[in-house]
Amino acid sequence: MSEVIQYRVRGLDCSEEVAILQREVGRRDGVMDLEFDVVQGRMSVEFNRDTITPDQIVSAVNATGMKAVPWEQRASASQQSRWQQHGRAVMTATSGLLLASGFVVHWLTHGDLLDALAVKEGPEHAMPTMVMLLYLCAVVTGGWYVFPKAIYAARRLQPDMNLLMVIAVAGAITLGEWFEAATVAFLFALSLLLEHWSVNRARNAIRALMDLTPTTARYICPHDGDIRQKPVEQVPMGATVIVRPGEKIPLDGEVTKGESTVNQAAITGESMPVSKSPGDEVFAGTINEDGAMEFRSTKAADDTTLARIIHMVQEAQSRRAPAQQWVDRFARWYTPAMMLLAVALAVLPPLLGLGAWSLWGYRGLVILVIACPCALVISTPVSIVSALTSAARHGVLVKGGVYMEAAGRLRVLAMDKTGTLTHGQPEVQQVVPLNGHTPEELLERAAALEAHSEHPLARAVLRKAEGQGVSIVAAQSYRAIRGKGGEGEIDGRLFWIGSHRMMHDRGQETPQVHDRAVALEDAGHTVVAIGNDQHVCGLISIADRVREDAPEAVRLLRSAGIRKVVMLTGDNEGTAKAVTAATGVDEYRAQLLPEDKVKAVEALVAEHGHVAMVGDGINDAPALAAASMGIAMGGMGTDAAIETADIALMSDDLLKVSWLIRHSRRTLRNIKTNIAFALGLKFLFIVLAVLGLASLWMAIAADTGATLLVVFNGLRLLRD
Question: Catalytic site residue 115?
Fold first, then answer.
């Protein structure tokens, strides 16, 4: 029986460490699968407890020089000594100071800058002993964190970049190139420090999401009524939590007392405050603005909407994007190929009599230095993590890098009508009084009759009446007429309310009334007729109101590169045509059952390839699954929406779909730029090394600069 356990691995910062762990842990008997999240420093192990124990897995990791602790204990493991926190920076700075000191001493001793750069040769230009000692100390301090890993790699005959750097430094010293040896050691240490910093920067971006939730909550003890303040993890479910103005809400819950406005930007990405009163939901991490409130907690601290978002963002990083998978596959053969090239360049030309061994040996060392794949390997994950975190800040939860890339390749979008293009709630659109009645009188009669019904159309009439300030007195002797409507007495007189069919069946539909009703139905409205024993008093048209931002959202989708927007609905042709005209979508499919929506999506995928389905994440789950990518709207507070879709929009803002597509395409451009730059620079230096135009320090400086540039370029997506 297999189990999965997760570890926080200190020292897991690069693909080199991943390769080491795959060799030393992944090949152990009983280990079935390994997954890595470099940015979070997390390793997931699927293993058979009968063959290998968690303690043995930890020992295998620790034997590599890295340290593993169970993921649940990562908080205590993150408490490091000052040396553990700053030792790498101290040793790198020391190496740089010693390198600079050696250079200055050499310059002052010989009084010639070219001597200090080791350009001149001859006995009179010999390097002073003091300078060699300073350079040697620069090598030792620069390689302080590199040498142990290099020794480990050599002992197991598994060369990595640490070993390559040590070979390059040792080769330079053997050739008498002390300045270059010290420069390579310092710049490689600097590149590792920058890589460590960039990964921590990405980690901190996700930690910032975690910091949105308060660590403590003030609640009323159910036993003695006292107000207590405890960590959110210790607050019991169902407890009454107190939140003062300006405080962050610590848990998900339902308001029981007080009214306020709440800034829900942490979850929805929208800073517009939302009014809250008893019965409304509140969410952890949102900010109570101007009123004191009490609410009943409905979820544990580790199960709040925000906690689930954070968990999804962390999990998303293990679902690697295609570009990242390609880079990882490329890196597997890239490093060995570069080593063979370096050996061939160092050995073959001298054997063929094309130059001295020292000349070609030096050029081979330059190839070893430029072979470092750090800039290439770090280019994609930093961009993906930055893009995922930025999307979460904007209220768009993307389940993985694979979906972040897929969103940028979309060409066709299928959208459910109800709840996506429309509000999903029927509303009164027109009140049409007839035969001498007034709109107020018509609404009063309709509300009196509908007061007995729970039908959605009845609720829409009652909301309209309440909004118009109409006094609602329920009709007497009400009787429902199945499938048609109902009738009852108002002030001792019989009135009826029902469908177009009921009006026709009662024989009260005149040509004028018929034409008016048909016109409303052609516009996609449902007609409700109200009458008495003499005539039709009037008509009320009801429709699911189109979202105000739907036309703009469709326009922005086209500007983002979407070629076709297709609406899928179970409603009739008239309603579908009306919504199509109001929103500007390109096509519609009407009168679809859930299984018909699936077939429609499958047909679009077969025709166009990359197709996304946008729905509510619950009723549209089969269609979401059938699409290349499912996007659920209104995920805030809806567990099913977060679980079902590949991407969840935490608010009902349809404009976020076009934002997501543009954000995805920026991410794709960012990744392609990083990869092209990293590979182009390496190819350039390979050519320069073969021609003898590149030195060791130039190669490592270029590699360090490339790493820094791709990291900064990736981190720019955090500001998107």
Answer: no
